[in-house]
Design brief:
Length: 141
C-alpha cells in the first residue's frame, strides 16, 4: 500500500517557492530601477500610454475578461488611451496602432525601422552572426 505524503513537506516547498518568487520580484524591480537611474545620460524616448497591468500577465486581463468581443475590447482601449497604445502580454510588448495616419507613418515613412527580425537570444554569440534565414536583417542582399 502506498504511503501518504507528509503534509509538512508541501508547506515547506510552498514556503520556499513563495520566498523565491518574492526575491526574484524584488531583484527585478531593483535592477530596473538601477538601469533607469544610470541611463540618464542619453535621451529617453517616451513610451506610448498603457493601461494598468498586472506583474506576470501584463495586460492580458484587459483582453480576455468581459463579455465583448476581442476587436471591441481593442477599440475600447484605443478610445480610452488614444490611437497609439502599448500592451504587454507576459514578457512581450506590443504597440497597438488604431489610426490610419499613424499606421501609414509607421509602415510607409519609417518602414526600415520596423521591418527587421527580432533578436532571438544574442546574435553576437550565434555561429553565423545573423546570417540565417530567420535572423538575417532586412535587405541583406
Amino acid at each position: 500500500m502506498a504511503s501518504k505524503p507528509d503534509g509538512i513537506s508541501y508547506y515547506y516547498y510552498g514556503f520556499w517557492l513563495l520566498v523565491l518568487f518574492i526575491w526574484s520580484y524584488l531583484v527585478q524591480t531593483l535592477w530596473k530601477k538601477y538601469l533607469s537611474s544610470n541611463g540618464g545620460t542619453r535621451a529617453q524616448l517616451q513610451s506610448p500610454p498603457t493601461p494598468p497591468g498586472l506583474p506576470i500577465i501584463g495586460h492580458l486581463h484587459h483582453l480576455l475578461l468581459g463579455s465583448t468581443s476581442f476587436p471591441q475590447k481593442l477599440h475600447s482601449l484605443a478610445t480610452r488611451y488614444g490611437p497609439l497604445l502599448q500592451l504587454q502580454i507576459g514578457a512581450s510588448k506590443f504597440i497597438l496602432v488604431s489610426d490610419s495616419n499613424f499606421a501609414r507613418e509607421i509602415l510607409k515613412t519609417h518602414e526600415l525601422n520596423f521591418v527587421d527580425h527580432p533578436d532571438f537570444g544574442s546574435p553576437d554569440y550565434n555561429i553565423y552572426f545573423r546570417s540565417g534565414i530567420g535572423t538575417a536583417p532586412y535587405g541583406w542582399r
